[in-house]
Specification:
alpha/beta, Rossmann fold, 2 domains, seven-stranded mixed sheet, 11 strands, 18% strand, globular, binds glycine
Length: 373
């Protein structure tokens, strides 16, 4: 029997556990049954993930006598919009999900965010369980209760805080992830070390490459440590009045780059987070906040992981530095018209900064853009 860990997210009446381990789909019934008012659940997924994992989940639930109905949405970020929400909610009503029932979201960030939001508005709120199938979803989006959809105005602009009742992070599911998606998720893992745990970053420098190649115990530890950090931050600041903003390290840059590249395959979210983290450390060094050599250490680690940490690594055209800053200004983290960055005094020592000099930011971006072939 392999190790199973439970990380508690302490939120009073909304507290829950994130269960981390191997073979959790097979045990899903036993793990979920204590939460159910009646032995049935409605599973929302997407077609690619459903083809890989739905049968195993249904078998695991069936072993505890839990009946399932399931619906697979189209894969991809495009599903996370009004139309996908409508499809999800109408199906949940067709499936006669009642107020005390449980919805399961089986998939990556798109399904977790959309499924969670659908659960939050269905009958004024039903409970849900996250069964994240990607590294990004296991370490970030499934934990903390941020749910929502994208609109033509931007990403995640419509949503709700709706905490899951349980998260099942089955490390085995990561075996089926394409390497590019694994590494994109790694962008969020390394973020935790960079923002608040230098020892974890050091551990990743040593163990990250073997973990990416498939070492299960290393993956387990990396997911657990990431979830522990997120659980702590969310418990202290559920609705992002302060400390939770640190989880946005790299994200102001990332959101501008995602907008510039069309939110698609050119740049995956986690890839943008990695580039954004490297830029945040570069900006911190230029503002005299951290040592000059720190950004190189961050970039060297990302390169050692096989990731692409520079603007020059993004294929195709990018807009000008001014246009990128314009895209940042549309970010929902803008407050009173001021851009908000997460900067760092060192690896593991991030803080919120509302007064980045505009000329320094423009010069940094212009210089990085000029390095493009
Ligand atoms: N992904 C950032 C947060 O959950 O706050």
């Amino acid at each position: 029997m392999t190790q199973i860990d439970r990380v508690h997210v302490a939120l009073g009446a909304r507290s829950y556990d994130v269960v981390i381990g191997q073979g959790l789909l097979a045990q899903a019934g036993a793990l979920i049954a204590p939460l159910l008012a009646r032995p049935r659940v409605a599973v929302l997924s997407e077609s690619r993930v459903a083809a890989l994992h739905l049968a195993a989940l249904e078998t695991g639930l069936g072993a505890a006598g839990i009946a399932t109905s399931a619906h697979a949405l189209a894969p991809g970020e495009g599903t996370k919009g009004w139309e996908g929400l409508r499809e999800a909610v109408e199906w949940l009503l067709d499936a006669r999900v009642e107020r005390r029932d449980m919805v399961l979201a089986l998939g990556g960030g798109v399904i977790g965010d959309l499924g969670g939001f659908a659960a939050s508005v269905l009958r004024r709120g039903v409970r849900f369980v996250q069964v994240p199938s990607t590294l990004l979803a296991q370490v970030d989006s499934s934990v903390g209760g941020k749910t929502g959809i994208n609109t033509r105005h931007g990403k995640n602009l419509v949503g709700a805080f709706h905490q899951p009742s349980l998260v099942l992070a089955d490390i085995d599911l990561l075996d089926r992830l394409p390497p590019r998606d694994f590494l994109a998720g790694y962008g969020e893992v390394v973020k935790y070390g960079l923002l608040g745990d230098a020892a974890f970053f050091q551990w990743l420098e040593v163990n990250g490459p073997a973990m990416a190649r498939g070492a299960k115990e290393l993956r387990h530890y990396a997911v657990r440590r990431s979830v522990e950090m997120k659980a702590g931050i969310v418990a202290r600041d559920e609705t992002e009045q302060g400390e939770r903003a640190l989880l946005n390290l790299g994200h102001t840059f990332c959101h501008a780059l995602e907008a510039a590249t069309g939110y698609g395959d050119r740049l995956l979210h986690g890839e943008g987070v990695a580039i954004g983290c490297a830029l945040a450390f570069e900006l911190s060094a230029r503002m005299g906040l951290c040592a000059q050599e720190t950004p190189s250490r961050v970039r060297a680690h990302l390169r050692a992981m096989g990731m692409a940490p520079d603007l020059a690594d993004i294929a195709g055209d990018l807009p000008s530095a001014e246009a990128l800053v314009g895209l940042m200004a549309q970010d929902k983290k803008v407050q009173d018209g001021r851009l908000r960055f997460i900067l760092a005094r060192d690896i593991g020592a991030a803080f919120v900064c509302d007064d980045v000099p505009g000329d320094l930011l423009l010069a940094l971006l212009a210089e990085k853009l000029a390095q493009r072939p």
